[in-house]
Design a protein that fits this description.
The protein is mainly alpha-helical. The protein has helices spanning about 25-30, 35-40, 65-80, 85-95, 110-125; strands spanning about 1-5, 15-20. The protein folds into two domains: about 1-60, no CATH class; about 65-135, no CATH class. About 45% of the residues lie in helices and about 5% in strands. It has a two-stranded antiparallel sheet. The longest helix has 17 residues, at about 65-80.
Length: about 140
């Protein structure tokens, strides 16, 4: 495991943090630093967004609209891949993507948040309380 800066591309309000991640993910995250250096002529700092608006002269995180569009696209990709709809709902609700490989990296509070979202999905038992692509699956 390597420790790298992460800023989960999430609709939640989690601050940037340092996280232990598998080597291949660490390499992918570090690769995001090169476009940053190319655009802004410096190394990314702790307050800089991991994902940024490339046409800006200063590091700008994606707008709320761009973030929602990204999350919606990820939800559709997950559903098309056959991911259990409760997991897709929990991803939307928490901004977390839980796997067997990363479950041990979550805090107790994050795991509880994820489990609460799964329980909420199962309790809803129908599309009335869910929107978007999740309306067609349940």
């Amino acid at each position: 495991m390597e420790r790298v800066r992460t800023n989960p591309f999430s609709i939640s309000d989690r601050p940037e943090q340092q996280s232990d991640v598998p080597h291949d993910l660490a390499e992918a995250l570090k690769a995001l630093d090169e476009p940053f250096r190319s655009n802004f002529g410096r190394e990314p700092g702790p307050g800089d967004p991991l994902f940024f608006y490339p046409d800006s002269d200063q590091p700008q995180p994606p707008t709320a609209f761009q973030q929602r569009a990204f999350v919606a696209a990820m939800e559709q990709i997950m559903l098309n891949a056959g991911i259990y709809p409760a997991f897709v709902y929990a991803f939307r609700k928490t901004g977390l993507s839980l796997t067997e490989d990363n479950v041990n990296l979550l805090t107790a509070a994050e795991l509880a948040e994820w489990n609460n979202a799964i329980a909420e999905f199962k309790t809803a038992k129908g599309p009335a309380k869910r929107r978007g692509a999740l309306n067609q699956v349940a």
